[in-house]
Every structure is written in structure tokens, then in C-alpha cells.
Amino acid sequence: MGLPQTAEEFDLHARPVLPWCTIATGGIEAFGNILTILVFIKLGFPEIIHISYTALAVSDLGCVLSIFGFGAHALVEGSSLPAAAKTSILLVSVAGTLSRATSLITAWISLERCVGVAFPTRAMLLITRRITIAVLVAIFAITTTPIVVNFIAVAIVRDPNPEINFIAANVN
């Protein structure tokens, strides 16, 4: 048996392995993020950058746990990852939302470091604890608002017609 020649053959061979890969990597990453959060909490945030690193670990933990749940859902359902995506669309959108938050927090950390290098004497005046916390809260609020609206919309509008609403078609 040689290497798969077409995308369909590759998909056929990779399907059983992908949920296990997402569960394995998700578990390892979740453990690492939890350790990171605990270490920064134990340190007590002596520096401003530790606040940003903790927010990054929290955001990444949420993203990783939703992907971990996605892989577990695929195993429970006994289906491939694309088929599981249809039935757990909100879980996938949580991962996408939190990955945006992770990206924005990473950009904020980069900006903090750049300001510290460009203006070493004024960096403490430009980026304070209050500004850092306000920016991080704004990032979480802006990125998670769409997913909260999605959860509310799905809870309110449950059309049982499977031709109109594919979530209703895959619930049972």
C-alpha cells in the first residue's frame, strides 16, 4: 500500500486519525495553558506584561478546549471532523472567536514590547496596568460579543424545518 494519490484517498486515510490528533494536542495544550495561568497567578503579576501573558493563556485555553471538545464530539458521533462541524457549529465558532482574541492579545503584547524598546524611559508612563487591563477587557468584549449573539439567536430561533435550518436538521 503506497502513498495516497488523490485528495479523496488521503481524506479516507486521515479521517479516523484526525479526532484523536485534536484530542491529544488539545489535552497537552490545555495542560500547558493551565500551568501558565497558575504560575502567573502565583507570581502575583509583578510586571504589566504578566497580565497580558495571563490573558493570552486564558484566551488560548478557551480556544484549545473548544477544539478539544470538537474532536471529542467527532469521536462520540463516530463521524469525521467535517460532519461533526455541521452538528457542533457553535463549538467551532467559539474556537474561531477565541482565536481572534488570542491574535489581538498577541498584537497587544507586541505593541507593549515595541513601546518598551522605542521609548524605554516613557514606556511605564504610556502603558500602565489600568491601560493594559482596559485594552484586554475591550479585546475580550469585542471578540466575544458575536458568539454571545449567536448563542442567543440559536436559543431564540429554533426552526424545526431542516431545509431552512441545518442545526435543527442535525440535532437529533
TrEMBL record:
Main location as per UniProt: membrane
Localisation per UniProt entry: Membrane
Alphabetized UniProt keyword annotations: Membrane, Receptor, Transmembrane, Transmembrane helix
Residues spanning the membrane: 17-41, 53-76, 88-111, 131-157
Keyword Phosphoprotein: no
CC per GO annotation: membrane
Domain G-protein coupled receptors family 1 profile: residue ranges: 32-172
InterPro entries: GPCR_Rhodpsn_7TM (IPR017452)
Name of the protein described by the UniProt record: Chemosensory receptor B
Taxonomic lineage: Eukaryota, Metazoa, Spiralia, Lophotrochozoa, Mollusca
